[in-house]
Amino acid sequence: MSNATYLSYFHQRVQATPDKRALVFLDDAGTELVERPMTYAELDAEARTIAVALSEAVAPGDRALLLFAPGLAFVSAFIGALAAGVVAVPAPIPDGKEKGVDRLAGIVADADVRVVLTQSELAPLVTAWAQSVRPDLVVLVVDEVAADPAALTAPAISQDTIAFLQYTSGSTGDPKGVIVTHGNLVANEIEIQAALDTDQDIVMASWLPQFHDMGLIGMILHPLFLGGTAVFMSPVTFIKRPIRWIQVMDRYRATISVAPNFAFDFVARRVDDDAIADIDLSCVRSVLNGSEPVQAESIEKFLAKLGPRGLRRSAVMPVYGMAEATLFVTGTPVDNEPRIFDVDAEAFASNVLRPPVDSNAAQVRTLVGSGRPITLKVAVVDPETTREVAPGAVGEIWVHGASVAAGYWNMPQKSADTFAAEIAGGTGETWLRTGDLGAIVDGHLYVTGRIKDTIIVNGRNLYAHDIERAARSVSPAVAAGVGAAFTVGQPERLVLVHEIRPELLADTTHAEVISLIRDVVRSEFSTPIAEVILVGKGSVARTTSGKLRRVRMRELYEAGQITALTEQVPVA
Questions:
Q1: 178 three-class SS
Q2: 393: which DSSP letter?
Q3: 61 Cβ partners below 8 Å, 6+ apart?
Q4: Average pLDDT over residues 108-118
């Protein structure tokens, strides 16, 4: 199937196993999770019904915004858009907050959205919002569509046809619409299959947002691509009761799961050992951790919690990817334990990864390997000279291959700069510039951070996430929140804004916490912090996928719009 589209793979699965469960959504009913299954035949029929209605409303190639609560309807609508040749644009539902509403309006304008797909329970909210954005915007309520699925006239779809636009969450700038073609999607699904050694027996269990790349492509589309089963629930269900993720993996005998790094910490902190005494996770072959970078401490805490319940150390699979490469770029080989690499701190500050000269913890940085690619090419390049650097040297991660997306929607210059870079002295191949920093050691990629999050103090290169991690180590009250480190002024001064939970402080004062943070950062990084600001829960800006918005926090700091939490104010 060298010229196959994602739809052709999906339709093969429908024909081969029409009565097999394609999806199982677990609805949170409070005291229990209510199972809502859908077979391949049912999913195909619903998708074709939606495709017929879409074909009557818009033309192939038009853009359809998908606004759905977590659940089955979203998947039917997404496959329906593909079947109609309409470009799907997944997005979070409008939450009433100014930032979220403005971002959605920006997506509608940028993509020139012609129709909004939603479900009946959200129809009043979505319709009112759509009318406020553009009065001529058509709203199609998919569970109220009455059409004959057999009436679908399939449009001409090839590997070059755009499948969907994945709007990035904007952690380092304005959201951009990544153009993902059927060819990109199929290539990346094949890459994931080879890396994870998955087949039609896959049972994926997760809770990621369905409108983000990891949730959409990894959690939902990958099992459907293979003829497997995707078991999923709302992110809110996980946040309210993280034990449910663990219980679902056990109950459905999941073979694969995927989660960001924070979920590893969250489970370790919030799940009681006695509550999972009867859990058996020996069925789980891989739990993907796709954060940049993955934290070794989080892996160890997660394994300490779930190892006694049958989760093998080799099941934890650090991976690396991004929307601009469709999703997956590298992964730790299946059945291999995570690669933990202690590197010399001084050499690291000079952009070189090498073992430490002694065992002094203050002179060591611990990195986690993100594995290696299968068919994609990965290079580490000096971002200034665009020359490939030596193994072990830190540079910008560049990617080449069929999974690399077609560019950014409506941004030709930005697309050329990002997706058509060439390595100096190379063969003329075009590469994706990821904006991420890393190094290759023994063939494995180690992601060290983002270029825009690099902090240079006194000529030393530091990473914001390392400083934030060190701060979290001083107290459970700090560890329960997130922080943003950044520099301001000339000469550059280091500032840390960090959430704190006062109810976890015991007898420690804010001033003592700040002093501890200053001490640990100075000890680990030989760098003073000019200012530490402790703020309340939810005060540090994040994207819809949970990524820290450090640039935004710096802007708020410089505008004097960050208010420190006083010790008299409790945090719920």
A1: strand
A2: B
A3: 85, 86, 87, 162
A4: 96
